[in-house]
Amino acid sequence: MQSTNLFKTKLFKISAVSAALVLAGCGGDIELSSNVDNSVGDTNITNPAPTNPDTGVDLPGIPSSSLSAEVSAAVGFDVQVQVIDGQVSENTTLAKSDGSKPVFYAISGALEVEAGATLTIEEGTVLFGQSGNDYVVVHRDAQIMAEGTRQEPIIFTSLQDVKGEEATAGQWGGIVILGNAPSNKCPSDGSDCALQVEGVAEGAVFGGANTSENWEDNSGVLKYVVVKFAGFEIAPDNELNGVTFGGVGSGTTVDFLQVHANADDGVEFFGGAVDVKHLVLTGNRDDSIDWDNGFRGRMQHIFVQHAANAGEANRAIEADNDGSTPDKEPMSNPTIANMTIMGNNFDTADKDSEGIYLREGTSAKIYNAVVTGSSEMGECLEFEAGQTVTNAESGAIVMQNSTMACTNGENFKNAGDFDLAAWFTAESSNAVSSSILVDENGVPSAQSPLLGAGQDPAAIDTWFDSTDYQGAFDGTNDWRQGWAFGFGGGEITAPAEQEGCPTGTTAIAPVAGNTTCEISGTITSDLTLTSGNLYALDGPVFVGNDKTDSATLTIEAGTTIFGRSGGDYIVVSRDSKIEALGSAANPITFTSSQDVNGEATGSGQWGGMVILGNAPSNKCPSDGSDCALQVEGVEEGAVFGGADTAENWEDNSGTLRYVVVKHAGFEIAPDNELNGITFGGVGSGTTVEYIQVHENADDGVEFFGGAVNAKYVVLTSNKDDSVDWDNGFRGNMQYVLVKHDENGGEANRAIEADNDGSNPSKQPQSNPTIANMTIIGNSFDTADKDSEGIYLREGTRAQLHNFVVTNAAGECLELEAGTTVDQAIAGDTVITNSVFACSENFKSQDSSSGAFDLMDWVLNVNADNSTEAGVADVVNGIYTIDTTTPYSFGSHPFFDNANHIGAVSEDNDWTAGWTVGLE
């Protein structure tokens, strides 16, 4: 029976976890300790009756009137709280309901399930700790049967979380499960083994002789279980893990388990061979997965994400065998498949966010794994020198069909003379990539290179599910949804729904019937624009001042931001960030008020977007002194650029993902309009993928220096150039679709590319690489400008591959006379594997030494280029139909090896569902 009508309140929502009232009895009793622990955080028990007189249901534990009142007031409906502590010496069931209302269980002190007893926890049951002394221990030869469901997971959490107060790591203890499976700390002669587990009272022991029976020991079931805010610090650097597995055997079932915001490790395995599927580890403050002393379990479908707000974190995996005897048997050797690790930018002198660290002689077999994270993250993969490296070199450590996708320049950290990168890439199925196309929650897009790049682990061991992708998710089925905290489940009470405008914005009159918030001035602290509102720009809006008062503007998927005049635009200053995280189903839209109100739209109705970074431009001083170049089109003080250093080239201005910019490009002065998106000195640490600029009065996108990369770009009906670069731009682009107005409206070049007008060979010299670009021109042709394809000039270089250029009124390709042509002759500029189908395919210009035949250079000097008669020969709508063999990039970290030239193929239409103007 659902609780919607019974318990719904205005401020709180109850998940199905605690809302369902199932008329189920409970069996067994808990043998309570004679005295209730009244230490700090625990509760005095005042009412002795454990039986609901209305239903006759006996409940384990002692009812607490004070806690029942507190929790009921917090959640907005009547809840019975039972306090449980001491020893569970008989089979006992924790029922989720007393027959008339939900029952929550307050753990008081150590709740110990003794040998011979089984603790059964019904689906949807909530247990909470009140202090760090409150934890659960399942001893050897005991069992826990905690079997929730997707709709009703079992939740272990803190009192603060239950009451809707601020919840954080370390507010209660955690769960400890102890079994008879071996550890290499056990005596090697097979005599009795009783290893004290860390973090709990004496007598909590685990381990057993090295027998098949012990390896297969059964401690019960954890299924659809969420553990939150645990890991109390018992002593400095001695906290409980979220779930500790000590000598737990493979007969135990662990499936759909989450540990969130634990003060120590998420899960730790001391020996044993317990298997785990569907493991979610989020926001844990030390290692997410830790194994030691002979662990040999199997794991599949694992998602690790460090706190998104750069909260404390360490390694996603810290893996050991034995510190004093690294080759000790039984040796740690788990098998892992389908794992996604997402680090953050936590970095201190003591520890930082890292990926996988194998050490102290561990072995491991890892398949279909992905490690990624921010540019400030530590190393993504590291092996300790000595026995661990020996294991790698001997084949005892295996990594296959895995990708390192860190953007920090430290995918690998070598151990002495051992070249880890060479070891990793020697396996041909592994990859190093800077563009894996996953969203902020680790889910790959339909175009992600992870899909189809995995091997089937079921062919290795039938315990594993059959998969063909890398990472934890297949892009379609997000198995976290509905039960895991942060993914639609795992909640006791939800915070009050936010109404009105976020702090930092101002409520104004509703537009089109929607709550509307105004943004103005300079944003000097982090701000999130939630998707339930409209946001109006009021004049120039700056995110941070230049290199001071830096801030991050986060924009949720589906959000719309609009300008009401040409003076309304947004600027992201140096050292600030924009995190615009849209999705294919819910893109982020920047547009005009006319568009929002359903009025007639056109170009130039508002300003546009400007992103400014620290990456070099060849307009910066050549002596490396301070660089602050004023960007065109906006007010004074909007500056970009930096010294020619690796750090500046890799600068990170945030993320643009599934972002559509429409009807912008206001003309500030004659021939001075804003671009749709201006990138000034933006570095390669910035993520730009799935963006569109539609119907802009000036250029679609323009790059002033820098090295930002862009993938999946749509530029439609823009009135000047679609792509423009200048002054040392060195980024990469792939899958770029340019389509001039199909009704013959104003247009100019698809690419207008420069280096420097007064000094064409000036360094750093513009030299981007672009692949898989489709340019569909139109019939626009005036005395001043016309629809053209590619114009390279002012000394730019370029590496162009897999182009389709067609239908332009003017020429398809032109190179400016002089330096630009000279560089093409020298081989510094190339174009390959491309087709041209315009009425004037090539416009020749002279070199410094005389006539230059551009057609001959394209068709005979460069490789695999051709011409066709017209648009119908090369594209069907936007889809490539030309069969030219595409250029291969090998194992390039950014470029895919596409199976077609041009931007879009009919069997992979990545534009569908989120773009405009392509109907």
TrEMBL record:
Record flagged with keyword Signal: yes
Annotated stretches, region: Disordered: 748-768
Signal sequence, renumbered to the chain: 1-24
Keyword Signal assigned: yes
Compositional bias annotation for Polar residues: 756-768
TM stretches of this protein: none
Keyword entries, A-Z: Signal
SUPFAM superfamilies according to UniProt: Pectin lyase-like (SSF51126)
Name of the protein in question: Lipoprotein
